[in-house]
């Protein structure tokens, strides 16, 4: 059921985008009819024009919807999007995924396929698997497994090319498909830095492979749907690419130009050689272009004037593609019966063809033998071909093939020099070579893939190794550090413990010692007190004994004296002289007396020294006071001097004024004298006048006038005198006042000088006092020195006295012994009591001395112990401090140790986790490498709703003896649709 059909080409024009609008780009495309578009007056006709305002749904309905039904009917399908970058290819193919209005063809197709399946005959079982890859720089990169970067194209047994080793994911719901697409997109994003650039230079291919089986008839169909978002078709110059980018662009353009060449070849009807093998893209799309596939090409155009030339070339491309004819057949897997039937049919056809060949050969022979074959007898090739082709069904022997075959046959008949044998040989050779080529290609690809994988692995491993090594190093370093720390800590701890032990031991010992000592002290003090009490009693006894001995001595003395007297008397009587013992006795007493006297003196001197010292102190304080006073006095004195100077200055000014006043006074007195003189003169004149008057009486008038004159003169004189008097009195008063002032000043001056004198005297006195006191002090210190010297001397004296006393004591003892001996000798009849007493006293003395010695020793020991105790007490806080410090150190070390241990544990754990992770990763990779073998086919059954439990288990009804491993139809669970 093969039928020919043209590639469907629809043209989609996107609206002007905002930047184009802003730049003032014009909309250069016109739509004369519904299926044509004109640019620059040139009209291009397509199957459909999708104007800028059409919805995505409309685009889908026009461009893709029919293909869904075809694919589910066992046909292959392809939808291309062709156009320059940003012309709307991706918008058309994918759109905005998940947006019901803006989603493109792919999501709609996916949803539709499942919807179709859900509504189909329930005897049908579907297996859908999807692949997603991109072609970049003529390398096929698996988008579902990023390790597959260079996949090869192979041909299956039907000579249909396919991407070998490409990941195929079995899917059972639209969601799974969408997830797969998402995964692929994510992988694509991971691999590149600039997605926009990358997507414009790579072709992305999404393949949906639908297999179906009718469980009743066992009829199997399968269809492949390629959804291709091509790279931007623009010329390189437009992007301004350079260097590597230029290479890349050229390469992409190469694959696109290969596509163009293929399309051109197909459009020209030159099917003998279509350069599919020029690029991977064209190889993959071999079936879609001129092969067994329903193909729709969406050519996307930008309407902007800026893109006019690109749009034109795009439209031209579409125009050319439109002429390509595909021959589509259902991909059917036939059952044995079907194959048998086909075989029979083919046999029949073969026989027919044989007869044709025979006829042709007969005609050929006639032609070759030079005979003419009349036109009506000539074999009708076309009719024969049509007759045969009607029955042809299998794709391999489809009309095109037969036409080809016959065409070639006719070609060979019409003068081709190549023999049939050669031709077949060449053909087979060509095929072989192609096969080899494919194999090599695959080998290369697999090797490349392997290399890449190995490289990747190597890199990873290296990285891992480096990381592990680093970690290992770190860990070893850490470990070493920790161990070192540990060791040092251990050592320290050991030391500390040792020290602690020592300390504890020391402490114990010391405390023991202290206790012992305390006990000893207690004991000793007890003993001491006992001894003291005993000593006291002994002392008292001793005193008593002394008293008694003194008393007895006296008595003995008296007796001795009387005895001596008697003896003397006897001596005198006999005639000898025995007065010898007296002076010695007297000497000893005298020494004792002297000693007591000296002691008295000493004590007196001591008291005197003390008084002197106190006096010295008081004198010193007095001196300080006096010096202070002296300072004050000096200050006062200087003040006084100042005032005196001031006063002296004043006095000098005052004396000056006095002098002035004196001179004034003198002047005034002089003037008074002068005036007096004048008065006298005038009197004389008056007298003369009077004499003259007396002489010249006659001239009375004259006289009268003279008298008058005199009176006036007198009055004048009087006035003058009065004035003078007044002046005089004023001056006198002034003088008196000045005198008073002077007196005052003199008085004050005198006072001040007196005060000064007094102060000077005081000062002198104080000075003399001070010198006196210093001399006294010196004297006193000298005295003190002397006293000290004297005291020292006295001490020495004391010592000597003590020594002497000792000797005296000894002497006394000797004397007593001597005396006793003598007494024994001389007075044999003396009673025993005295003897016994003296002996007893000696023993007591011995005892006392012994006790005293003991006491001394004990006190010494006591003192030593007390000192030891104090030392220990002093040392105790220090030791405690040290103990505390060491305890703290131990604690800190312990915590550090703990931390280090924890850190090590953590590190180990991390390391373990890392190792596990790596293992897991390696395992995953291994799993992935095993490829789709691990994939589990999921069956999709019509009547199942998306979201109902997957029909992968259960019992298949009505098919006894069928494999339980195959897809199973759960009739009991599946909800039957009422669609068919
Ligand atoms: P391409 O894949 O060809 O490089 P895109 O599909 O990415 O171009 O489109 C470029 C921009 O133009 C996108 O932002 C897209 O949303 C917008 N666009 C493309 N076609 C249309 C259209 N028909 N309607 C609205 N916007 C569109
Ligand atoms: Mg795009």
Word description of this protein:
With 980 residues, the protein is α+β, with helices and mostly antiparallel strands. 68% of the residues lie in helices and 10% in strands. The chain has 18 helices and 18 strands. The chain has helices spanning 18-22, 56-63, 65-72, 89-93, 105-118, 174-191, 195-201, 236-239, 243-267, 280-284, 308-322, 336-368, 381-391, 399-413, 420-574, 581-695, 700-826, 833-929, and strands at residues 3-6, 8-13, 29-30, 36-39, 42-45, 48-50, 77-83, 124-136, 139-142, 152-155, 161-164, 169-171, 203-214, 220-229, 294-301, 325-328, 332-333, 939-940. The strands form 4 sheets. Strands 2, 6, 7, 8, 9, 12, 13, 14, 15, 17 and 18 form an 11-stranded mixed beta sheet that branches. Strands 3-4-5 form a 3-stranded antiparallel beta sheet, with helices on one face. Helix 3 (65-72) packs across helix 5 (105-118) and helix 9 runs parallel beside helix 11. The protein is elongated and about 220 Å long. The two termini are 23 Å apart. Residues 391-404, 410-416, 576-585, 930-936 and 946-980 have low confidence and may be disordered.
């Amino acid at each position: 059921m093969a039928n020919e059909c043209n590639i469907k080409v629809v043209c989609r024009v996107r609206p002007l985008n905002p930047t184009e609008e802003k730049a003032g780009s014009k909309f250069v495309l016109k739509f004369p009819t519904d299926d044509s578009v004109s640019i620059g007056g040139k009209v291009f006709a397509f199957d459909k024009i999708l104007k800028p305002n059409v919805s995505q749904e409309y685009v889908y309905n026009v461009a893709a919807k029919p293909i869904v039904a075809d694919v589910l009917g066992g046909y292959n399908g392809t939808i291309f999007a062709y156009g320059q970058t940003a012309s709307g290819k991706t918008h058309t193919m994918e759109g905005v995924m998940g947006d019901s209005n803006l989603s493109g063809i792919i999501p709609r197709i996916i949803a539709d396929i499942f919807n179709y399946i859900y509504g189909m005959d329930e005897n049908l079982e579907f297996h859908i698997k999807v692949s997603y890859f991109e072609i970049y720089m003529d390398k096929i990169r698996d988008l579902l497994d990023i390790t597959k970067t260079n996949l090869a194209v192979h041909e299956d047994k039907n000579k249909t090319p396919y991407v070998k080793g490409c990941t195929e994911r079995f899917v059972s719901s639209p969601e799974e498909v969408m997830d797969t697409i998402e995964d692929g997109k994510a992988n694509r994003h991971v691999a590149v830095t600039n997605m926009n650039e990358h997507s414009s230079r790579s072709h992305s291919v999404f393949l949906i492979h639908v297999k179906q089986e009718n469980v009743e008839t066992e009829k199997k169909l399968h269809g492949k749907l390629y959804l291709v978002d091509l790279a931007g078709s623009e010329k390189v110059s437009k992007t301004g690419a350079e260097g590597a980018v230029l290479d890349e662009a050229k390469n992409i353009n190469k694959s696109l130009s290969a596509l163009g060449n293929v399309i051109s070849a197909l459009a020209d009807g030159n099917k003998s050689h279509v350069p599919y093998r020029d690029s991977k893209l064209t190889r993959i799309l071999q079936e879609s272009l001129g092969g067994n596939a329903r193909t729709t090409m969406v050519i996307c155009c930008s309407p902007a004037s800026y893109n006019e030339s690109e749009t034109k070339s795009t439209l031209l491309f579409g125009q050319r593609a439109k002429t390509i004819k595909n021959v589509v057949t259902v991909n059917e897997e036939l059952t044995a019966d079907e194959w048998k039937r086909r075989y029979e049919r083919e046999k029949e056809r073969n026989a027919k063809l044989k007869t044709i060949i025979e006829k042709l050969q007969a005609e050929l022979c006639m032609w070759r033998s030079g005979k003419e074959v009349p036109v009506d007898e000539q074999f009708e090739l076309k009719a024969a071909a049509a007759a045969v082709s009607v029955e042809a069904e299998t794709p391999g022997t489809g009309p095109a093939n037969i036409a080809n075959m016959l065409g070639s046959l006719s070609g060979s008949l019409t003068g081709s020099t190549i023999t049939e044998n050669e031709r077949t040989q060449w053909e087979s050779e060509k095929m072989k070579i192609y096969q080899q080529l494919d194999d090599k290609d695959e080998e290369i690809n697999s090797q490349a893939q392997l290399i890449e994988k190995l490289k990747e692995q190597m890199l990873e491993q290296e990285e891992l190794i480096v990381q592990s090594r680093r970690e290992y190093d770190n860990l070893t370093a850490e470990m070493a550090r920790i161990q070192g720390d540990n060791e040092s800590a251990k050592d320290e701890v050991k030391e500390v413990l040792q020290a602690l032990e020592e300390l504890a031991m020391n402490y114990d010992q010391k405390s023991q010692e202290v206790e012992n000592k305390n006990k000893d002290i207690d004991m000793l003090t007890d003993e001491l007190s006992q001894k003291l009490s005993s000593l006291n009693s002994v002392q008292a006894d001793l005193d008593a004994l002394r008293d008694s001995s003194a008393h007895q001595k006296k008595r003995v003395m008296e007796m001795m004296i009387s005895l001596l007297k008697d003896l003397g008397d006897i001596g005198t009587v006999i005639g000898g002289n025995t007065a010898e013992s007296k002076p010695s006795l007297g000497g000893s007493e005298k020494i004792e007396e002297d000693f007591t006297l000296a002691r008295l003196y000493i004590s007196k001197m001591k008291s005197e020294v003390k008084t002197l010292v106190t006096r010295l102190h008081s004198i010193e304080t007095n001196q300080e006071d006096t010096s202070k006073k002296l300072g004050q006095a000096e200050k006062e004195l200087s003040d006084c001097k100042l005032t005196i100077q001031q006063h002296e200055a004043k006095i000098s000014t005052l004396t000056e004024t006095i002098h002035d006043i004196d001179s004034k006074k003198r002047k005034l007195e002089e003037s008074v004298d002068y005036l007096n003189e004048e008065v006298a003169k005038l009197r004389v004149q008056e007298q003369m006048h009077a004499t003259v008057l007396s002489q010249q009486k006659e001239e009375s008038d004259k006289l009268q006038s003279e008298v008058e004159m005199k009176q006036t003169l007198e009055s004048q004189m009087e006035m003058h005198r009065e004035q003078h008097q007044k002046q005089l009195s004023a001056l006198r008063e002034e003088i008196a006042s000045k005198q008073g002032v002077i007196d005052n000043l003199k008085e004050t001056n005198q006072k001040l000088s007196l005060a000064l004198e007094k102060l000077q005297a005081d000062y002198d006195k104080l000075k003399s006092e001070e010198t006196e006191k210093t001399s006294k002090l010196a004297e006193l210190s000298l005295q003190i020195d002397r006293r000290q010297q004297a005291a020292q001397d006295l001490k020495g004296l004391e010592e000597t006295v003590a020594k002497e006393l000792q000797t005296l004591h000894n002497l006394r003892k000797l004397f007593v012994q001597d005396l006793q001996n003598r007494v024994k000798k001389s007075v044999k009849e003396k009673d025993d009591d005295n003897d016994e007493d003296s002996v007893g006293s000696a023993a007591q003395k011995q005892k006392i001395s012994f006790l005293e010695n003991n006491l001394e020793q004990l006190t010494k020991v006591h003192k030593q112990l007390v000192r030891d105790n104090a030392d220990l007490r002093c040392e105790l806080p220090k030791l405690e401090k040290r103990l505390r410090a060491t305890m703290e150190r131990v604690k800190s070390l312990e915590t550090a140790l703990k931390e280090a241990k924890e850190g090590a544990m953590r590190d180990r754990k991390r390391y373990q986790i890392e190792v596990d992770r790596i293992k897991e990763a390696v395992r995953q990779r291994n799993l992935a490498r095993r490829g789709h073998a691990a994939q589990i086919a999921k069956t999709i059954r019509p009547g199942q709703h998306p979201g109902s439990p997957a029909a992968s288990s259960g019992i298949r009804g009505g098919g006894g003896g069928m494999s339980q491993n195959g897809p199973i139809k759960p009739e009991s669970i599946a909800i039957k649709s009422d669609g068919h």
